[in-house]
Design goal:
Layout lengths: L2 H35 L1 H5 L3 H16 L4 H20 L2 E2 L2 H6 L11 E2 L6 H11 L12 H13 L5 E4 L3 H10 L1 H6 L4 E3 L8 H7 L3 E4 L1
Parallel strand pairs: 3-5, 4-5
Antiparallel strand pairs: 1-2
């Protein structure tokens, strides 16, 4: 096989992979549209009504609906809860750079930065499907993971969120735990320095458990 033929075959495989990724994303756009379709109705809920959605979702699951059935509304609820709990803040120059392909979002000096962008919602759908979502630094992996974690925690079977070190596990369990707590979801964090302790066992019993 000549070098040209080898290179050509590799290039074709790369193109095929890219087109498959694009096709996979396009398949998720209708689900994204459903999530966004709940935006106005969810935004109109009071805090108490928003909190009660968690129990409503659990009841619907108990009656036979699937996680996929409730995904659009559950994701919309979590996105609204994120905004209400963590609020708005100014963006930094580095954040402008990371999200420069979504410049329209950054027209205002203050934005709902902690609420989820569409690309993050798509990432959360991918995680829920048991697939891997590749994201660059600063594109919101934490936001993607917690949305999928909330949905799957509704089943009552427990969800584990794995991070690269104890610091991030503790930080994210406390930071994102504010949103989960608002929605009635319990959060625990495993500490490597406390094996076999009551606190560690309690963390395992939470709806969502952070660890390394």
């Amino acid at each position: 096989m000549s070098f040209y033929t080898f290179f050509s075959n590799v290039f074709k495989r790369l193109l095929a992979k890219m087109s498959k990724q694009e096709r996979d994303v396009k398949k998720l756009l209708p689900v994204l549209a459903l999530v966004n379709g709940f935006k106005d109705s969810i935004r109109g809920l009071s805090d108490e009504e928003l909190k009660n959605k968690t129990q409503e979702f659990k009841d619907r699951l108990a009656k036979g609906e699937s996680l996929d059935d409730i995904l659009p509304e559950a994701f919309s609820v979590f996105r609204e809860a994120t905004h209400r709990v963590l609020g708005e803040r100014r963006t930094t120059e580095s954040e402008h750079t990371v999200f420069n392909n979504r410049k329209k979002i950054f027209k205002k000096e203050t934005i709902q930065f902690m609420a989820h962008f569409d690309v993050q919602v798509i990432g959360a759908i991918v995680l829920h499907q048991g697939k891997i979502a590749e994201m660059r630094t600063g594109e919101g992996k934490t936001q993607v993971a917690v949305m999928a974690a909330y949905l799957n925690a509704l089943s009552g079977k427990g969800v584990h969120v794995i991070t690269v070190n104890d610091y991030l596990a503790k930080r994210d369990s406390e930071w994102m735990g504010r949103i989960f707590g608002f929605l009635g979801i319990t959060v625990g964090c495993l500490d490597k320095s406390e094996p076999g302790t009551p606190e560690r066992r309690e963390a395992y019993l939470c709806d969502i458990t952070y660890g390394t």
